[in-house]
Amino acid sequence: MPGLDYKFLERPRRRFLCPLCSKPMREPVQVSTCGHRFCDTCLQEFLSEGVFKCPEDQLPLDYAKIFPDVELEQQILALPIRCIHSEEGCRWSAQNKQLQAHLSACAYNVVSCPNRCSVKLLRRDLLDHLQHDCSKRKLRCDHCSLEFTGEAHERHQDACPEESVYCENKCGARMVRRLLAQHTLSECSKRKLPCKYCNKEFLYDTIQHHQNQCPRFPVQCPNKCGTPGIAREDLMTHVKESCGTAMVFCPFKEAGCKYRCIKPAVPHHLEDATHSHLSLLCGLVNRQRLELRDLRRRVEELSGSQDGVLLWKIPDYCRRLQEARTRTTGSAELFSPAFYSHRHGYRLQVSAFLNGNGSGEGSYLSIYIRVLPGEYDGLLEWPFPYRVTFSLLDQSDPALSKPQHIVESFSPDPNWKNFQRPQPGAMGSIRAGSLDESMLGFGYPKFISHEQMRKRNYIRDNAIFIQASIDVVQRIIN
Asked: Which residues form the TRAF-type domain (predicted)?
């Protein structure tokens, strides 16, 4: 070990310094042949290299001529120094020889824990360590009064059987830990139990409520048929399909049969009431037929125009014209969708004879308009008063030539019976094939000749377009 590396209060004299390490000598020795002095350790290291000469004057050395310099050592030990922990805060200073005694009590000296916990720390922190941090300190449990080392005490705190704890299920109960397992198993109101009917888990304090609703809970048949253990969720199926004492309606209930009987008696009732059931079904079919007719009419009205303009496309014109020419019985009249003159106005319909009608038959297109029974007829002025315009639209490309529509207009005469208020059901004879003039409505039997239709694009893509517009005049009320 080289010389003393202490903080001396005064700079040591040169004769106290080792020539080899340049520090105040530790355990100085003197070479008697030349009088030079060195640290014992420094000289030993120098000689261990195989050079047996004095480091100062290079004269030969003899181990027998080297001896401890006790007097010089006492002088060095008497030099005043500061504590080696002065930079940490220790203010001690005294003779060098008193340092070891001071270090045995210095608050800033590093010491090992006496409990052999392997921790090294400043002496001034030792007491706090022994009381709070040492893993091998002795501690007494506040609950069972047993002593444990620090680590064992921490483990024991989470498992002490005498510690008072709350139930982990948060039922609110408090007890010593050794009773907790029994409480959780058989006493806790929040413990989980399986329902013995559906096997789902529920809290103990809610399982009774669950069993009042459990789908697998066994219940009795309300008809007291004697079937045991019917699951609650299967009860309705049992009553409807399996129960022999359940009262059921006749299968023809929707048709109007109000008979009720137990399920086994249903076949007998069906056999006895065959004639009445057939009558009920006929009545149901008639009612449904009327409902369908009304629905068709309403759909027709909703899909039709309500602004007084009808644009009617007649597709497959050539086939329809040929059929009209070859028809020998019935009417060849085609009917447009119904439309309204205006919102909440007159309900109208256009019809066409592709091969003509009356004076135009065989070579003309005939067009008529009639008034149909409507929803709002009771609120309207009669006879029908508005001007009507028919148009056969020219389908020529406007970029190539100006379209030349065929247009005819008329204003109804108040005396014409065609425009009086129609009676409900009066139009049925039209579709049945009647050609009475009062049922045809009013129009033009010679609207346009077949020959003229072929001169321009009135027929295009095997279809024609007929437009009917109603000129609704807004009346000013004074």
From this structure: 101-154, 156-208, 210-261
Question: Distance between CA atoms of 21 and 190, rounded to whole angstroms?
Answer: 80
Q: What DSSP string runs through 9-36?
A: SSPPPGGGB-TTT-SB-SSEEEETTT--
CATH number reported for the structural domain that contains residue 346 in this entry: 2.60.210.10
Mean pLDDT, residues 343-348: 92
Domain identity same for 369 and 385: yes
Extended beta strands in 96-200, E state:
110-112, 120-122, 138-140, 147-149, 164-166, 174-176, 192-194
User: Are 309 and 440 within one domain?
Assistant: yes
**pLDDT value at position 426?**
56
Q: Single out the residue in 103, 134, 167 at which a domain terminates.
A: 103
Domain residues for 61? Answer: 7-103
| pLDDT, tens digit (0-9, with 9 covering 90-100), for 192-222 | 889 888 888 888 888 888 888 888 888 888 8
C-beta separation of 118 from 133 below 8 A:
no
pTM recorded for the entire structure: 0.43
Query: In angstroms, what CA-CA distances link 123 with 94, 103, 126?
Result: 20, 10, 5
